[in-house]
Specification:
Elements lengths: L2 E5 L7 H12 L4 E4 L9 H4 L3 E3 L8 H4 L7 H6 L8 E6 L13 E6 L10 H7 L2 H22 L4 E4 L2 H11 L3 E3 L19 E5 L8 H11 L3 E4 L5 H6 L5 E5 L3 H10 E6 L8 H7 L4 E4 L4 H4 L6 E4 L4 H14 L5 H8 L4 H20 L8
């Protein structure tokens, strides 16, 4: 059985790429297809595979400004030749599922999220970009939405990374999806032995929807030490509103992130995420999470056990959560947090995803008459 893995772009190692790594270990002989490749920015486990790119990779500045070529990505996907593959697994967050496969091949889509910036999160995206981009996107959005919906019917079986995303798939694409939570590399993190730490921590891409501004403003107003890990277009604005107690350290390697987690007091997680692997990495380190109580965090954080929720994406709500956490800090047992994270191991992911592929293959082999009501 020849296997193709289709990933939207390979320019760094975020949560989607960690899932792709697990799929690479499941299918070690698989070929990878992607729009843009920066081999220096991906893990050796992914880089050792045969990787083919679309024509987007050859366009000027594609490694840094790949999202500007979003309108061309549907065309680029449809030009990929996947006729030699029996199983195609698309990893969807940007455009990836729109590939065209053989009638008898199986296409399973592992969906991190339908593209936020063309569906329900488009107002926030529009507010974060310049006037020319806004104008261009307003013209392009209707066509992109039509293509995104129609291409969803090229998928034989959807697997969502959370129940939150499964609901978004049902809403936007009118398709049902099984749920298999992403894997966490538990072994890469060491649970500390006792509560407490030197600083609060916020890490991830510094983009508008991550709402890192809430953590920066709350810690600035409360004069609490905060370390911000990551890079992105919001960095300059965040620096401008940060007090001296907030330190920006840029992108860090995995070992440094694991060390920062272990030494932190708590992880601040103010985004409405589709799933969010970072809260589970914090739990694996024995570190509580203060999270916005919507989206995927409700499936990874146990309120009062592995962290606390705040109900509104307001600075005052985050401040109140920090104050409440400091009052209850000793209630959070690092070993209980570690045990919770172990429920999201890679072994569990591989077993559950393999089961979904097997179920999809069985459904595909049934005679057409069996699908009739």
């Amino acid at each position: 059985m020849r296997v193709a893995l289709v990933h939207y772009w390979l320019v760094g190692m975020a949560g989607g790429e960690r899932v792709l790594e697990a799929l690479c270990r499941m299918y070690p002989q698989a070929d990878i297809f992607t729009h843009v490749l920066d081999k220096a920015a991906i893990s050796p486990n992914i880089a050792r595979h045969h990787i083919e790119t679309t024509f987007i990779h050859r366009l000027p500045g594609s490694k840094k400004h790949y999202q500007r070529y979003l309108p061309l990505m549907p065309l680029a996907l449809e030009q990929l030749d996947l006729t030699g593959y029996d199983l195609v697994i698309s990893s969807e967050s940007g455009p990836a599922k729109g590939v065209i496969t053989r009638a008898d091949s199986l296409h399973v889509c592992y969906c991190h999220t339908p593209m936020r910036y063309i569906w329900d999160s488009w107002p926030g995206y529009m507010a974060s970009v310049g006037p020319l981009t806004r104008l261009g996107m307003r013209l392009l959005l209707p066509g992109l939405r039509r293509w995104d919906l129609l291409s969803s019917f090229r998928v034989d079986h959807f697997v969502a990374n959370s129940h939150f995303v499964a609901r978004r798939i049902r809403k936007h694409w009118q398709r049902e999806a099984a749920v298999v939570h992403p894997p966490v590399n538990i072994a890469a993190f060491t649970a500390r032995q006792q509560t407490g730490g030197d600083f609060y921590l916020c890490l991830g891409r510094l983009t508008h929807y991550k709402r890192v501004d809430l953590a920066v403003k709350a810690c600035s107003r409360l004069n609490r030490p905060l370390v911000v890990v990551g890079e992105g277009e919001s960095l300059r604005a965040l620096r401008a509103e940060a007090a001296p107690c907030v330190r920006f350290v840029g992108r860090q390697d995995d070992a440094t992130v694991a060390d920062l987690l272990t030494r932190s007091r708590a992880l601040l997680f103010p985004a409405e995420e589709d799933f969010g692997i970072v809260p589970l990495e914090a739990a694996a380190s024995g570190v509580p999470v203060l999270a916005y109580g919507r989206g995927g965090a409700t499936e990874t954080v146990l309120d009062g056990i592995t962290g606390l929720f705040f109900a509104q994406q307001h600075v005052e709500a985050m401040e109140a959560a920090i104050v409440e956490f400091e009052r209850r800090e000793r209630d959070f047992d690092p070993q209980a947090l570690r045990r919770h994270a172990e429920n999201f191991s890679e072994e569990r992911f591989r077993q559950e995803f393999a089961r979904q592929v097997a179920l999809a293959r069985t459904a595909q082999s049934r005679p057409a008459a069996q699908y009739a009501p």
